[in-house]
Amino acid sequence: MHYTAGSMVQAIKGLYSLQEALQEAGVKVGRNKKALCLWHNDRSPSMHVYREKVHCFACGRGGDAIDVFAAANGLETKAAVQALAARFGFMNGIPPSAIEEWHRRQWQMQSERKTEKDIEAAYWGLCGLLHSLEASMKVILPDREATEDEAASKAAARIGALLSDVWAVLDGLASENQQEQRQALQIAKERGLLT
Length: 195
Fold this sequence. Notes:
This protein is mainly alpha-helical.
């Protein structure tokens, strides 16, 4: 099977993600989803990174994974498509390994999207729990120094320990490191912090 230019581009996009292109180009994306632009001499991150494209609000340039590959390697778009087509073996048809890789990446992307949604939901859920715990602490133990109620002190100690756990998990969920985010999500599930 031979590819038309459009179908080859679509096939490459299915195998080559924006995240891979940015990583290969050595682009560091900050927590705010901004990075230094590939198209101009950027001193302050002005390139916004979205799920499938980038856009620089300073120079107006941007594009998808293929455009990032082209910019990083000093190529025109057509040459970048040809280089990526050769990399993935699309010059003379679809190799079986490319089909398997495409399916694997599709499954991986779906899995990553679900994990991202779970992490975001956990973060906001734990923010709500944190607020409730802090409000409970104020009700149970309005003045720690003045109270001598043992039950209130024990309840406050339990809430304090839970607050500490929630803060630690929130720090992990807010991390830029995906592995730390996943570990924090797992800890939240294990400790029963999520409903």
